[in-house]
Structures are given as C-alpha cells and as structure tokens.
Amino acid sequence: MNKPLPNSIEARDVAYHLHSYTDARKHEEAGPLIVEKGEGIYVEDNNGKRYIEGMAGLWSVALGFGEQRLIDAATRQMQKLPYYHTFTHKGHGPSAELAEKLVNMAPVPMSKAYFTNSGSEANDTAIKLIWYRSNALGQPERKKIISRVKGYHGVTLAAASLTGLPNNHRSFDLPIEGVLHTTCPHYRTMKKEGESEQDFAKRCAVDLEELILKEGPETIAAFFAEPVMGAGGVIVPPDGYWEAVQPVLKKYDILFVADEVICGFGRTGNMFGTETYNLQPDIMTLSKQLSSSYMPVSALLVNEKVYGPVADESHKIGVWGHGYTGSGHPVGAAVALENLKIIEERDLISHVKEISPQFMKRLKQLGEQDMAVEARGIGLIGAVEFAHEKAPDVGAVGGRINRAMQERGLISRNMGDALAFCPPLIISEAQVNEMFDIAEAAVADVAKDLG
Ligand SMILES: Cc1ncc(COP(=O)(O)O)c(C=O)c1O
After folding, report:
1. Is 152 close to ligand 1, i.e. is its CB under 6 Å away?
2. Are 231 and 255 in contact (CB under 8 A)?
C-alpha cells in the first residue's frame, strides 16, 4: 500500500483509529484498506477494486453482503422498537422468539438461551455461569477451566485467557489464574515418530486426563473447545479425537462448552459442529453466522444441569447479577431470526454439503503447489500451510502470500503461514473455482519472487 494522501479517509483513519489485530506503527506507514460496499461474496474498496471475501469477513457473513431481507428485518424492527433491554423481568418479542428458536434448534437438549454481543462475551459469560454454578452446588473449589493450545475463544480478560495463542497473552499479563491449556490436536505438528492419527487422538485424551489428575479432578469445572479450531489455523481434529476426549470429561463430571462461534449455522456441513462430531456439550456459545454479522449478537445455550443450580442460586441471592445493555437487543434478535429463516428456507446446509467436495478438492490442489506443506478443512472452512527456506520467520511466507492474494483480488487471512479459506456459505461452485484460481496464481507469484 502507498502512503495515504493528506486528508483522505485513509489519512484520517491513520490519524484517529487504533485497529484490532494490527501492528499500530506499521499501520501509520501503510494505512488501511478501506472497504466501501459489498454484494454476495464480493466486497469493493474505495478505489473500485473488487475482492472475493474469502473469509466471509471474520468467518461470519454466511449470507454474503447485501442480503436485502436482513436489511428489511433490521429496518422494520428499528421502526417498531429500536431498543429495549432484558433486565429485571423485561423483555420483547424478538429476544423471546430467538431464545425459543435456538433452544429448539439445538442438537442436544438445552434449557435456556442467554444473549450477549460478541463471542468473547458469550465465553466470558459461560465462565461466570460455571463459577456461579460451582458455588451453588457447594463446590467452591471447582473453578479451574481447561482449554487447548491454539484454541481461540476471544479477547476479553477471561476469554483471552482461554485462547491458547501467545499474542493474546503477551504483554497483557494473561492468562488469569486457573485457566489451563491442554494439547493442541494438530496431528502433523504434534504427532510422535511413527504415531498413527488414532493413537495421537488417544494421546490427546491421555494428556487431558493427566492434567486433570495433576490439578485434582475436584478443582476442574469445565473444558472449552471449538469443534474445529478456527483462528488457531483451522485445525480439524484427528480421527477419533472427540470419541476419546468426551469420556474423560464425563468420568470427572467436567462441563463441556462447545464454542460454536465459527462452526455454528452450517460452516462444517451440518447446522452445528456438535452434530458433525457427535458432541454432547452442556453449553454452546454462538455468534458470527447467527446474524451473518449484520448485527453484533451472540448467545449461549445452557442445559438443565447448568440452568438449574444457577436459577436456584439467583433465587437465593435475589438476582443473577449479570447482563449487558445490549443483551437480546431487539434489532440484533430480529436480524438473527430472519437470518436463520433464510438459512432454513434456502436449505443452505444442503448447499454446503453439495459445494464442499469441490471446495475440498481445490483446497487439496492448492496444498500440492510449490511451498505448500499441508491442506486441511471440512465443510466450507479450510487452510493451506506454506513454508519456504528463504522466508523462515513464522508468518513470513504466509504474509507474502496473503498480500499477493489481496493484490489479485482475494481477501484471505494468514495465521502464521497458514492461509485460511472460509467464504460466505452462499458461494457457488464457479466462485469456489474463481477463488482458488486466484489463490494458485498468488502462490505462484510468491514462489517466483522467492526463487
Ligand atoms: C471460536 C471463536 N470463539 C470466540 C470468538 C470471539 O468472538 P468475538 O470476536 O465476537 O469476541 C471467535 C472470534 O473469532 C471465535 O472464532
């Protein structure tokens, strides 16, 4: 990117805006890419250049950009009741309806929905519910939480602690006490010499059990995990992983929180990752594709095992002393309801199942190109990891490929040297090919540059 012109939107952005997940000093030099509009799987910058949004924004714009029905749903709700809250026995139609819808959609028995505004808040709230429940049960020592190295659960203080990535901890004095991380289930990088995928999966469960025993099972409250890891590099669990891990949780009566923030609403080829992997969570956290990110809305579903003691404790104290001004926001809830209606009406789950084989075929082909080390994915989420001896620093080759893709009109995201692909669920087969044609050309550009 060239240095921004004085007084341009780019220059004003540099002057006034601290960006998420950005090197602030580098941003002062390079400036932003200003995205102005979007339609379907494409977005356009303020110079009229079009890009395929290969990440669906942040793994989230399921219906693509410019879905008129979502805009209409928001407008109607804005006109009728633009805001009301859900504190102190108050409510409104959209939040009650969305709660009913989500509890009924859940693939395992769930009792109640609770609303938040981001994935981080949903996971933070899950921790608070879990701690509150342990106190309610007279088990105040049962407070520790286990998540996984490379798991991603957000950035608020507790959620960032769950996240198992160094950049979310470094210089933030995190993780907080009582959050522990177990083995990352990435077979290629974590396997031992000669270990089969199934044996590796079993070892992950043994590692988890050893951690539980070392800490004392009576002190462990919950295990948080994404069905498929997203921001950690799209790590698809090895064969037999969930079959080995879940019995360990059951054995020690540890709650299981499935973070469905990315996997939920069709991403893995079923409505929930929980179905894809036959999971039995006690809590599910939901966001992103819940509203196609047209509005910030997130939710937790909790089963009776969680709700019961929490409800009793709130009755004893006189209040469940928690809530956000935006919890169950009527416009967010109305957009989410319409979004879910469209996903069902258009049978997007079958669409994902139909498109996924071509997506996976092209992902694997990209994984056979120069510099590629591994391709992994499921449904419509995948990543290809690259390496090159002339760019040995972590993220060096990934960053180059990411820039080359952007130059050619494809927005991806490099997580280290893994390039992610997570397009809107509405993508067509021709568009899948268009996306990977650009990706292949960009990889060839970088391979040529590096020699
Ligand atoms: C699996 C998962 N959980 C939680 C979060 C945090 O969500 P948010 O950025 O809305 O706080 C994310 C965000 O990418 C995520 O991928």
Report:
1. yes
2. no
At residue 12, φ and ψ (nearest 5 deg) are -70, -35
Is residue 230 in contact with ligand 1, taking CB distance under 6 Å? yes
The Cα–Cα gap between 28 and 277 comes to 44
Residue 389 C-alpha to ligand 1 middle, in angstroms? Answer: 33
Q: How far apart are CA 142 and CA 134, in angstroms?
A: 6
Q: Which residues pair with 348 in a beta bridge?
A: none
- Whether 282 lines ligand 1, by a CB cut-off of 6 Å, is no
For 157-182, write each residue's pLDDT tens digit: 999 999 999 999 999 999 999 999 99
Q: Tokens at residue 52, please?
A: 């395929």
What pLDDT, on the 0 to 100 scale, is given for residue 82?
Answer: 98
Do 296 and 118 meet the contact criterion of CB atoms below 8 Å apart?
yes
Ligand 1 within 6 A of CB of 259: yes
Q: Which residues pair with 381 in a beta bridge?
A: 378
Inter-residue long-range contacts of 125-129, CB under 8 Å, 24+ positions, other chains counted: 125/300, 125/322, 126/222, 126/224, 126/257, 126/283, 126/285, 126/300, 127/158, 127/159, 127/162, 127/222, 128/322, 129/283, 129/300, 129/302, 129/306, 129/310
Output the pTM of the full model: 0.97
* Half-sphere exposure (Cβ direction) of 282: Cα atoms closer than 13 Å: 21
Judged by phi (left if over 0) then psi (alpha if -120 to 50, else beta), residue 38 lies in beta
Question: How far is the C-alpha of 372 from the C-alpha of 162, rounded, in Å?
Answer: 30
Token pair for 286: 């939901």
